[in-house]
Write a structure and sequence with these properties.
CATH class of the largest domain: Alpha Beta
Number of helices: 11
CATH topology of the largest domain: Rossmann fold
Structural class: alpha/beta
Number of strands: 11
CATH superfamily of the largest domain: P-loop containing nucleotide triphosphate hydrolases
Order of helices and strands: HHEHEEHEHHEHHEHHEHEEEE
Helix content: 25-40%
Shape: globular
Largest sheet: 9 strands, mixed
CATH architecture of the largest domain: 3-Layer(aba) Sandwich
Radius of gyration: 21 Å
C-alpha cells in the first residue's frame, strides 16, 4: 500500500480529534483537492458535522475467477449451479438438491425440519457434536444463540435474508454491539441509510455507538451504492488490508441487495458479488450481510446469488396463521461447520433489539 492509502484510514479515525480542537481536519483538505480520488467514496465516515471525511478501506487487489474453483468447502463446483443459472432454493427449478443443505448432506426439508404451524419439539444436541478447533462467537441475539449450540464459527460469512420491516438492520447492529461489549472492534457499512441515522438508531437502544466510535473501536461508514459499484474493484482489493489495520473483528454490510442492483447483466452481477464476498473472507473477519428477500420466495434473496456464497443463512419473515394473526419468524437454513436447530421460531423487535422465543412455536 502507498503512503496515501495508509493516510485514508488514519484520517477517517482522527477526524473526531480534529473537530474537537476546532482545527480543520486533514481529511477535509484531502477531499477538496483529491477530485476523483477513490477516497471520495467514503463520505460521512468521520464524525465531523459536515460529514465529508474519508473512509477506512484500501489494500491489495485480489483477483478471482467466479466460476472457477471457489472455497474448498464447495467441492470445486460453481456456487451458482451446474448451468450457471439461479437455482430455486426448493430444488425443483434446477432439478437438483436444495442449496441450503449443510456439509453433512442435510436437506432443507429433512425429517428434523419443523413446520411453521406444527408444534414439533426442540432438538437435542450432544456436546460432542460441537467439538471443534474452530473458534466460535455468539450473535448476541437472545434465543437465536441457543439455536446454534456452540456459536457461529469465527470468520464465517453470514447473510440474513428478509423483506422490509423484518429487522435485518437491527440484527446487524445488535451483532456489532455484542462484539463491542466484549472488547472487539467493529465496522458498519451502510448503503441504505446515513451514518447519522445508524448512530441514532443504535444510541436510542442504549448501545453507545458514539462512545465506541470515540474510542476508535467502531467505524460507521455510509457509501453511495452507485459510487461503490463504480469503484468496486479498488474497494474489493483494499478492504482486507484496511480491515486488518483497523483490527476489526466484526463487519456488517447493509445491504448487499443495493450493490447487486447496480449491475444490469446477471453474469456481471454474479462475478462482482462473488469476488466481493471472496475478498471479505480474505479479510480474516466475521462478516454479516443483509439481503432483501425475493418477492416470490421468502427463502431466496432478491437476485438468488448471495445465499450460495455465504457460510450461514438466516431467514426473517412474516407468517400468517389460520386466524390471520401475523407473526415474525426466524429460521436457520444453513451454518457450515455447526449444528443448529431447523425449527422456525417466533421473534419480536423491542427497544432492546431482537429477541427470539426459542421455547415457543409459531401460533
Amino acid at each position: 500500500m502507498s503512503d496515501d492509502d495508509d493516510d485514508w484510514f488514519e484520517r477517517a479515525l482522527s477526524d473526531d480529534e480534529d473537530d474537537a480542537s476546532g482545527e480543520p481536519s486533514e481529511s477535509e483538505d484531502a477531499t477538496d483537492s483529491a477530485g476523483s480520488d477513490a477516497s471520495d467514496l467514503f463520505e460521512d465516515s468521520d464524525a465531523d458535522d459536515d460529514g465529508d471525511g474519508d473512509g477506512p478501506f484500501e489494500g491489495d487487489s485480489a483477483d478471482a475467477d467466479p466460476f472457477g474453483e471457489p472455497e474448498s468447502d464447495t467441492g470445486g463446483e460453481s456456487p451458482f449451479g451446474d448451468d450457471g443459472g439461479t437455482q430455486s432454493p426448493w430444488g425443483d427449478a434446477g432439478g437438483g438438491e436444495s442449496p441450503f443443505s449443510d456439509d453433512d448432506g442435510g436437506e432443507l426439508f429433512d425429517e428434523s425440519f419443523g413446520s411453521a404451524f406444527d408444534a414439533g419439539s426442540d432438538e437435542e444436541f450432544d456436546d460432542e457434536d460441537f467439538e471443534s478447533d474452530i473458534p466460535r462467537i455468539d450473535l448476541g441475539i437472545e434465543g437465536l444463540d441457543d439455536m446454534i449450540q456452540g456459536g457461529i464459527p469465527h470468520k464465517h460469512l453470514i447473510v440474513t435474508i428478509g423483506s422490509a420491516g423484518t429487522g435485518k438492520t437491527t440484527f446487524g447492529l445488535q451483532f456489532l454491539h455484542h462484539g463491542l461489549e466484549n472488547g472487539e472492534n467493529s465496522v458498519f457499512i451502510t448503503l441504505e441509510q446515513s451514518k447519522e441515522a445508524i448512530m441514532s438508531t443504535a444510541n436510542e437502544r442504549g448501545w453507545e455507538f458514539d462512545r465506541y466510535e470515540a474510542e476508535n473501536r467502531l467505524a460507521v461508514v455510509d457509501l453511495d451504492p452507485v459510487e461503490m459499484a463504480n469503484s468496486l474493484d479498488n474497494i474489493r482489493g483494499e478492504l482486507p488490508e484496511l480491515i486488518r489495520e483497523f483490527d476489526a473483528d466484526r463487519i456488517v454490510l447493509d445491504s448487499v441487495s443495493l450493490l447487486e442492483m447496480m449491475y444490469d447483466e446477471q453474469a456481471r452481477r454474479r462475478t462482482q458479488v462473488f469476488d466481493f464476498t471472496r475478498s471479505l473472507k480474505e479479510a480474516d473477519v466475521t462478516t454479516f450481510l443483509t439481503s432483501e428477500a425475493s418477492e416470490a420466495n421468502a427463502y431466496a434473496s432478491r437476485h438468488g446469488i448471495i445465499e450460495y456464497l455465504t457460510d450461514a443463512v438466516f431467514v426473517l419473515q412474516y407468517i400468517r396463521g389460520e386466524t390471520q394473526e401475523t407473526r415474525l419468524a426466524v429460521e436457520i437454513l444453513k451454518i457450515r461447520n455447526a449444528n443448529h436447530s431447523r425449527e422456525m421460531k417466533p421473534y419480536d423487535i423491542t427497544d432492546d433489539g431482537i429477541s427470539v422465543y426459542q421455547q415457543a412455536n409459531i401460533f
